[in-house]
Write a structure and sequence with these properties.
heterodimer, A: 185 residues, mainly alpha, 9 helices, B: 365 residues, alpha+beta, six-stranded antiparallel β-barrel, extended
Amino acid sequence: MRTETNDQKLLEGLAQNDRKAIETIYRQHYNMVQSLILSNSGYPDDARDIFQEAMIVLYEKVRSGSFELNSQLKTYLYSVCRRLWLKRLNQMQRKASPEVENLEETVPVEEELEAHERRNKDFLLMERSMNSLGEPCKSLLEAYYLEKRSMVEIAGDFGYTNADNAKNQKYKCLMRLKKIFNQLK
Amino acid sequence: MQDTILLDAVERYIRGEMPPEEKALFEHLRNTNPEVDQLVVEHSLFLDKFTQYGVTHRFKDQLVAIHNQFVQEGGITDQRPAIVVTLWKKYKRTVFVAASIAGITALVISGLVSVLSPKVKPSQLEYLSGQIAAQGYKLNKLDTKVNSAETPAPSFSRGGTGFLIDGKGYLITAAHIFKNATQVEVQNTLGEYRARIIQVDHQADLALLKIEDTTYHAFSSLPYGISKTGADLGEDVFTLGYPRPEIVYGKGYMSANTGYQGDTTNFQLTIAANPGNSGTPVLNNDGEVVGMVSSTQQNAQGMVFAVRSKNIFQALDAMRADSTLQTTDSTISHLKIPTTSFMKGMERKTQLKRLEDYIFIVKSN
């Protein structure tokens, strides 16, 4: 019972981007995932990538308002990492040793992973678009849409003569980003 | 122009910032004009994706920070326990035999060494350290012999750091890296490029290079600007350069207004610098280049001298005015030095990520 309430608290913290909660989950479960990867033809760097991707899957899930894991957090993370790693092994055509196939209790996570895959595709496309956008557009869009800073403040920092000019420029940048994004797609 | 007004209306509509009358009008427009309706739907979808990207991006950064902290605390060990354990079981006997042989050999060798090596007199050791002390005021240029094992092209023996001052491929670096150099190559996170020395100003210890390689893609703008005023005493500064084949970040402060022996074209930094840091840009918190690392004083830890950014302007003005250069490089007269930084108010790690691509390893023969 105690683990369940603890897990619940951590997930709520995670949904609010609470650093403490993220850190706790990291500390509690990283080594379990690392030993899974290392004992199945993986390297420490693979363990880091897989665990962090699983954390993003979990983050996306709790942010969409769903805290129902139907299992302990530990089992959930293990299941996600196991699926992710199997997929990675398949892609690399490294042979999965039998342990991955039949180790420990797992819960079905296919649905979440499909949703994650779609989101991840958009994320990577957006990242590529942003990287080819160039400055000052990139910083301008980040400052306004992501860091939510005011147009007046941004105009001052970037050296535009007034907020209206900065705003105009921002829209032009956004249209360019959209164009690049749609081209890459 | 029309597009941005419409987009502005769409965004205010999506965010619910429109006053009631305007909203009614806009909704009418939406109803009667399918293109506007389409734009609203498509734009809000795109903004969602963009915000999602920002959220995930920030979360990823956070994960990386936590991971690094965890590694530093020793919470993660890079061992492969399962495999090590099975190997250990399998080869236990062999390991023991090998270990005892190694142990015996080590004992024998250390015994032989202590018997055969000549006794060093204490006075000799003192003499050596005295000699170094006597050289204490000699400048130690921060260039480095590039290890031939690390670079595939053995013809490059000297190295330093350089940074772009114009996206077209103009780089600034330290002049002392080039002594009768005929070949120059630069390398950043994106690739390796051939470069040409446009001008060397040994007095100012500045060199201007130009990347001349078809694989190089020009940057339309640089994230940093070159400061016309420079740094103030006590101001926090940071460096990003290549003392190793890996890019290295350093943090320190401006500790004196002049350089070696009162040189006013330089200033003094207290920062960690190593061979290979020559030519490294020195930036302030706003991401403006205030100087370029040039040399260090021997025997003085963290005492580093840098060329003032003001002198970069002066040296470049002189180079531009030099008519002989116009004939060898026609674009030099269009060289435009950026003065605004686009990294103000950003977190340091974001600044470093922005900077990376614009800083190069400089190799010469």
